[in-house]
Amino acid sequence: MPDVHHPERVVVVGLPGSGKTTWAKSYIRAWCAHYGSGALVVDILSEYSGPGTIYRPQNRTEPRQEIEKLINEALIKPYQAKERKRYRLVVFDEASRYIFPRVPLGPYFGYLNDFSRHMDLTMLIVARRYSQIHTDVSELAHRHVIFKQTGLNDLKRLSETCAGLDDAMNEISGHQHIEYANGDIERYL
After folding, report:
1. How many CB atoms lie within 10 A of CB 10?
2. Alpha-carbon distance 146 to 35, whole Å?
3. Superfamily of structural domain 9-188
4. What's this model's pTM, rounded to 2 decimal places?
Protein backbone atom coordinates (compact mmCIF):
# COMPACT_ATOMS: atom_id res chain seq x y z
CA MET A 1 0.00 0.00 0.00
CA PRO A 2 1.48 3.40 -0.94
CA ASP A 3 2.29 5.93 1.76
CA VAL A 4 -0.12 8.88 1.95
CA HIS A 5 2.86 11.22 1.67
CA HIS A 6 4.14 9.50 -1.46
CA PRO A 7 1.28 9.14 -3.92
CA GLU A 8 1.82 6.91 -6.89
CA ARG A 9 0.53 6.48 -10.42
CA VAL A 10 -0.30 2.86 -11.26
CA VAL A 11 -1.14 1.56 -14.74
CA VAL A 12 -3.13 -1.71 -14.76
CA VAL A 13 -3.70 -3.56 -18.04
CA GLY A 14 -5.16 -6.92 -18.93
CA LEU A 15 -7.37 -8.66 -21.40
CA PRO A 16 -11.04 -9.16 -20.43
CA GLY A 17 -11.33 -11.72 -17.65
CA SER A 18 -7.62 -11.65 -16.77
CA GLY A 19 -8.10 -10.20 -13.28
CA LYS A 20 -7.39 -6.46 -13.65
CA THR A 21 -10.74 -5.31 -12.19
CA THR A 22 -10.45 -7.79 -9.30
CA TRP A 23 -6.94 -6.46 -8.63
CA ALA A 24 -8.20 -2.85 -8.77
CA LYS A 25 -11.11 -3.62 -6.41
CA SER A 26 -8.68 -5.20 -3.95
CA TYR A 27 -6.44 -2.13 -4.17
CA ILE A 28 -9.41 0.20 -3.52
CA ARG A 29 -10.62 -1.88 -0.54
CA ALA A 30 -7.12 -1.94 0.97
CA TRP A 31 -6.74 1.79 0.35
CA CYS A 32 -10.04 2.67 2.02
CA ALA A 33 -9.41 0.30 4.94
CA HIS A 34 -6.01 1.89 5.54
CA TYR A 35 -6.73 5.57 4.85
CA GLY A 36 -10.49 5.81 5.32
CA SER A 37 -12.53 6.96 2.39
CA GLY A 38 -11.19 9.36 -0.19
CA ALA A 39 -11.47 7.18 -3.28
CA LEU A 40 -13.16 8.28 -6.50
CA VAL A 41 -13.80 5.54 -9.08
CA VAL A 42 -14.77 6.33 -12.66
CA ASP A 43 -16.77 3.22 -13.56
CA ILE A 44 -18.06 3.12 -17.13
CA LEU A 45 -19.13 -0.55 -17.11
CA SER A 46 -20.80 -0.58 -13.65
CA GLU A 47 -18.32 -3.12 -12.28
CA TYR A 48 -17.57 -1.48 -8.93
CA SER A 49 -19.42 -1.23 -5.64
CA GLY A 50 -18.22 -0.87 -2.10
CA PRO A 51 -15.98 1.77 -0.59
CA GLY A 52 -15.37 5.12 -2.21
CA THR A 53 -17.42 7.33 -4.46
CA ILE A 54 -18.47 5.62 -7.68
CA TYR A 55 -18.99 7.87 -10.71
CA ARG A 56 -20.76 6.35 -13.71
CA PRO A 57 -20.70 8.60 -16.78
CA GLN A 58 -24.06 9.10 -18.44
CA ASN A 59 -22.45 8.91 -21.87
CA ARG A 60 -20.68 5.55 -21.91
CA THR A 61 -19.69 5.65 -25.57
CA GLU A 62 -18.06 9.09 -25.59
CA PRO A 63 -17.45 10.04 -21.95
CA ARG A 64 -14.32 12.19 -22.42
CA GLN A 65 -15.97 15.60 -21.98
CA GLU A 66 -18.00 14.43 -18.99
CA ILE A 67 -14.95 12.95 -17.26
CA GLU A 68 -12.86 16.04 -17.99
CA LYS A 69 -15.55 18.10 -16.22
CA LEU A 70 -15.55 15.67 -13.27
CA ILE A 71 -11.76 15.93 -12.96
CA ASN A 72 -11.94 19.70 -12.91
CA GLU A 73 -14.85 19.98 -10.47
CA ALA A 74 -13.96 17.17 -8.05
CA LEU A 75 -10.15 17.27 -8.09
CA ILE A 76 -8.53 20.34 -9.66
CA LYS A 77 -10.75 23.17 -8.42
CA PRO A 78 -10.63 22.04 -4.76
CA TYR A 79 -6.85 21.67 -5.01
CA GLN A 80 -6.39 25.13 -6.55
CA ALA A 81 -8.72 26.66 -3.95
CA LYS A 82 -6.62 24.99 -1.23
CA GLU A 83 -9.70 23.22 0.11
CA ARG A 84 -9.51 20.07 2.18
CA LYS A 85 -8.85 17.11 -0.09
CA ARG A 86 -11.97 15.02 -0.55
CA TYR A 87 -10.19 12.43 -2.68
CA ARG A 88 -6.73 10.93 -2.28
CA LEU A 89 -7.20 8.08 -4.77
CA VAL A 90 -8.78 8.27 -8.21
CA VAL A 91 -9.40 5.21 -10.37
CA PHE A 92 -9.98 5.53 -14.10
CA ASP A 93 -11.40 2.21 -15.29
CA GLU A 94 -11.70 1.53 -19.02
CA ALA A 95 -9.38 4.51 -19.45
CA SER A 96 -8.81 3.93 -23.16
CA ARG A 97 -12.41 5.04 -23.77
CA TYR A 98 -11.53 8.62 -22.80
CA ILE A 99 -7.74 8.84 -22.57
CA PHE A 100 -6.77 8.13 -26.16
CA PRO A 101 -3.22 6.92 -26.89
CA ARG A 102 -2.45 9.03 -29.97
CA VAL A 103 -4.43 12.16 -29.10
CA PRO A 104 -3.24 14.89 -26.73
CA LEU A 105 -4.50 14.43 -23.21
CA GLY A 106 -7.56 16.50 -22.37
CA PRO A 107 -6.67 19.72 -20.52
CA TYR A 108 -7.86 18.56 -17.10
CA PHE A 109 -6.56 15.01 -17.33
CA GLY A 110 -3.29 16.46 -18.59
CA TYR A 111 -3.15 18.74 -15.54
CA LEU A 112 -3.93 15.80 -13.28
CA ASN A 113 -1.26 13.69 -14.97
CA ASP A 114 1.34 16.41 -14.45
CA PHE A 115 0.38 17.53 -10.93
CA SER A 116 -1.14 14.49 -9.18
CA ARG A 117 1.87 14.07 -6.89
CA HIS A 118 1.68 17.73 -5.89
CA MET A 119 -2.01 17.19 -5.24
CA ASP A 120 -1.11 14.21 -2.99
CA LEU A 121 -3.30 12.07 -5.24
CA THR A 122 -2.74 8.43 -6.16
CA MET A 123 -4.02 7.49 -9.61
CA LEU A 124 -4.97 4.05 -10.86
CA ILE A 125 -5.38 3.89 -14.65
CA VAL A 126 -7.00 0.65 -15.88
CA ALA A 127 -7.25 -0.45 -19.53
CA ARG A 128 -7.41 -3.66 -21.53
CA ARG A 129 -4.32 -3.32 -23.67
CA TYR A 130 -0.92 -1.81 -22.96
CA SER A 131 -0.85 -0.17 -26.39
CA GLN A 132 -4.04 1.71 -25.41
CA ILE A 133 -2.34 3.57 -22.56
CA HIS A 134 -1.30 7.11 -23.46
CA THR A 135 2.49 7.43 -23.53
CA ASP A 136 2.47 10.45 -21.19
CA VAL A 137 0.56 8.37 -18.64
CA SER A 138 2.64 5.19 -18.90
CA GLU A 139 5.98 7.02 -18.85
CA LEU A 140 5.06 8.81 -15.62
CA ALA A 141 3.69 5.68 -13.95
CA HIS A 142 5.50 4.52 -10.85
CA ARG A 143 4.26 0.98 -11.30
CA HIS A 144 2.75 -1.14 -14.08
CA VAL A 145 0.54 -4.12 -13.22
CA ILE A 146 0.33 -6.21 -16.37
CA PHE A 147 -2.01 -9.13 -16.83
CA LYS A 148 -1.91 -11.24 -19.99
CA GLN A 149 -1.21 -9.29 -23.20
CA THR A 150 -1.07 -11.07 -26.57
CA GLY A 151 -1.35 -8.38 -29.25
CA LEU A 152 1.74 -7.63 -31.33
CA ASN A 153 1.48 -3.88 -30.62
CA ASP A 154 1.12 -4.56 -26.89
CA LEU A 155 4.15 -6.84 -26.81
CA LYS A 156 6.19 -4.38 -28.86
CA ARG A 157 5.30 -1.54 -26.49
CA LEU A 158 6.13 -3.70 -23.46
CA SER A 159 9.53 -4.44 -25.01
CA GLU A 160 10.10 -0.72 -25.60
CA THR A 161 9.20 0.01 -21.98
CA CYS A 162 11.66 -2.52 -20.54
CA ALA A 163 13.81 -5.17 -22.21
CA GLY A 164 12.38 -8.57 -21.36
CA LEU A 165 8.94 -7.37 -20.34
CA ASP A 166 7.42 -8.86 -23.49
CA ASP A 167 9.19 -12.18 -22.88
CA ALA A 168 7.88 -12.25 -19.30
CA MET A 169 4.35 -12.35 -20.77
CA ASN A 170 5.08 -15.87 -22.02
CA GLU A 171 5.71 -17.03 -18.45
CA ILE A 172 2.29 -16.08 -17.07
CA SER A 173 -1.19 -17.43 -17.67
CA GLY A 174 -4.69 -17.21 -16.27
CA HIS A 175 -4.98 -14.56 -13.57
CA GLN A 176 -1.24 -14.18 -13.06
CA HIS A 177 0.39 -10.84 -13.62
CA ILE A 178 3.69 -9.01 -13.80
CA GLU A 179 4.54 -5.87 -11.88
CA TYR A 180 7.12 -3.56 -13.34
CA ALA A 181 8.58 -0.67 -11.35
CA ASN A 182 11.93 1.12 -11.40
CA GLY A 183 13.40 -1.29 -13.95
CA ASP A 184 12.48 -4.38 -11.91
CA ILE A 185 10.15 -7.09 -13.20
CA GLU A 186 8.32 -9.21 -10.62
CA ARG A 187 6.09 -12.14 -11.53
CA TYR A 188 3.00 -12.99 -9.48
CA LEU A 189 2.29 -16.58 -10.42
Report:
1. 22
2. 25
3. P-loop containing nucleotide triphosphate hydrolases (3.40.50.300)
4. 0.91
